Amino acid sequence: MAAITAPPPPAPASTSCRLPRRRSRPLTRVAASSSRFRPSSSRRPSSSISFPGAGSSGGGGEILHVPPPPPPAAPPGAPVYVTLPADAVGPGGRVARRRAMGASLAALAAAGVAGVAFELWWGVVERQGPGEYDWAGYLDLAAMARHHGLRVRAILAFHQCGAGPHDPLWIPLPQWVLEEMDKVPDLSYTNRYQQRNKEYISLGCDSLPVLRGRSPMQAYSDFMRSFRNTFEDYLGAIVTEVQVGMGPGGELRYPSCPTEKLNQPGSSSELGEFQCYDKFMQASLSAHAQILGIQEWRSGGSTGTDGSQQDLEETSFFRADGGYWDTPYGRFFLEWYSGMLVLHGERLCMIADTIFSGTGVTISGKVAGIHWHYYTCAHPSELTAGYYNTLLRDGYLPIARMFAKYKAALCCGCFDLRDAERMNPESSPEGTLRQLVGAAKMCNLPLNGENSVTRLDDASLNQVIRSSRLYSGRSSGTSFSFNYVRMNKSLFEFHNWSRFTKFVRQMSDARTFLARLDVRRGQQYLSSMSVVWVVSRACAYT
Q1: Interior/surface letters 480-499, b for 16+ CB within 10 angstroms, e for the rest
Q2: What class of enzyme is it (predicted)?
Q3: Cα distance between residue 449 and residue 476, in whole Å
Q4: Is 260 one of the catalytic residues?
Q5: Which residues contact 129 (CB under 8 A, 6 or more apart)?
Q6: C-beta of residue 264 within 8 angstroms of C-beta of residue 272
Q7: pLDDT tens figures, 157-201
Q8: CA dist list (Å): 52 to 58, 68, 69, 450, 512
Q9: Active-site entry in 126, 251, 270, 430
């Protein structure tokens, strides 16, 4: 009788924390390459199954013909992306705080996020001169994402970042563009007080050769083409989506209210200013009136507006009873103003669709969630931003139809906002989001949701989950994903990281989460803590 021996003592626990080891290939690929699932090259696959005892020489065996199994169903839930800091690539064109970035990407990959999004700033890439592109930092960042198994959403940012040189995240338009805007001030958006806004070139000169012989559309087109050629090896596999910047903040809108003010408390009471008083926009308005044969509407703009007013009933244009917005002239002006914005977006979508056709990349554009006068008749803050959305008219459906024409995805925020926390009773972020989602569903658009405020409290994350259920796009073959804006040091703090990883599991398929983590259920907590330790040691972003 063999002697019974005690099991060997367990190996001493290591005192160092390590990231969970990642598989060299995704689980699905391992299964697909196994001989159990794929016939060898020495024999042809058969649609029949032979059971034990079956054969050609009797034995009562029988060959059953079984149809091939159906393809696996798409996993439930929505993939989660994380937007990297705006200065992930610094003004000099190199990855900032590279060690911290590598540790942060490793943490995000271990948490189960699908990928990262980051802006490729016009003011960084083409800073040296017209047609001189420096993609080195962004190529490095894409390679780092690929190393950690993350997909990339590239945001082509043709707008400025930050409020001015005093802002630590200040990234202006290329200097040579600003020089042209100084020579010709009407290249800037202009309100009726002749106040200029240089966040983005006025769409009134889209097709005019005002940038040293090129039009803004030609400059945007050359930028996209250079990006496509430079990132050719990444497109479709790593870079799966290209979001085209279409205005201030990257959104398809006018700068009716400066972008930095939109994030300040109290901005929700501003009505905004129409941005149509540069000479190019005025010429377009005049031509539009002339086509309609209404000479008296050829000059000027909206009347009876005052964006500094906080009470819309004190303005003759926006008030509910007898406001100019609901008069023949008001409808003429708003149709032209919003139509110019849609035309600008269509020009960019057409260019992007042509350049990225056949690359396997999805193109997308972003619409702003301007919700602070949603429960009014005129929706003034939406009108001044270029969305002709009132109690009597749907202003988002024309934009969604334009996106659908080019198979572009729609990106919008407000997914984390609740009506219950609003400061203005006329505001409704949930109502605005429902209308945007409804337009996307009606046009079968892929939808990318975003949070409007960077926070990780339970109430906000639960609101994102509830808002995401508004879009049931999978039944129609379209898709939904969520983009968390944006990564910072607080994301990796103990309690925030715990809430975030739980949120990722709730949003995406739990099986995918466990496969990416490559650990048993009982080890999830340890892996998350290891990630936090590594990121904190790497001096993550502040």
Answers
A1: bbbbbbbbebebbbeebbeb
A2: hydrolase
A3: 18
A4: no
A5: 176
A6: no
A7: 999 999 999 999 999 999 999 999 999 999 999 999 999 999 999
A8: 12, 20, 21, 56, 36
A9: 251
For residues 184 and 205, what is the distance between their CA atoms, to the nearest angstrom? 11
What is the DSSP secondary structure assignment for residue 184, as one 8-state letter?
S
d(CA 160, CA 177): 11
Query: Would residue 119 show up in a list of annotated catalytic residues for this protein?
Result: no
Residue type, 302: S
Q: How far apart are CA 231 and CA 239, in angstroms?
A: 8
Which amino acid appears at position 309 of this protein?
Answer: Q
Cα separation values, 419 from 263, 271, 471, Å: 17, 19, 19
Residue 514 phi/psi, 5° resolution?
-65, -35
Q: Are 47 and 69 in contact (CB under 8 A)?
A: no
The phi and psi torsions of 129 (rounded to 5 degrees) equal 160, 165
* Residue in 126, 273, 430, 450 annotated catalytic: 450
Both tokens of 516, joined, read: 């990416």
Q: In whole angstroms, what is the distance from residue 195 CA to residue 443 CA?
A: 37
- Residue 61 in this model has a pLDDT that exceeds 90: no
The structure tokens listed for 295 are 């000479």
Distance CA 301, CA 304 (A): 10
* Cβ-proximal residues to 315 (8 Å cutoff; 6+ apart), any chain: 271, 304, 305, 306, 309, 323, 380
* Spatial separation of the C-alpha atoms in residues 238 and 145, rounded to whole Å: 8
pLDDT class of 538 with cuts at 50, 70, 90? very low
The Cα–Cα gap between 85 and 542 comes to: 10
Characterise 68 by phi-psi region: left (phi > 0), alpha (psi -120 to 50), beta (else). beta
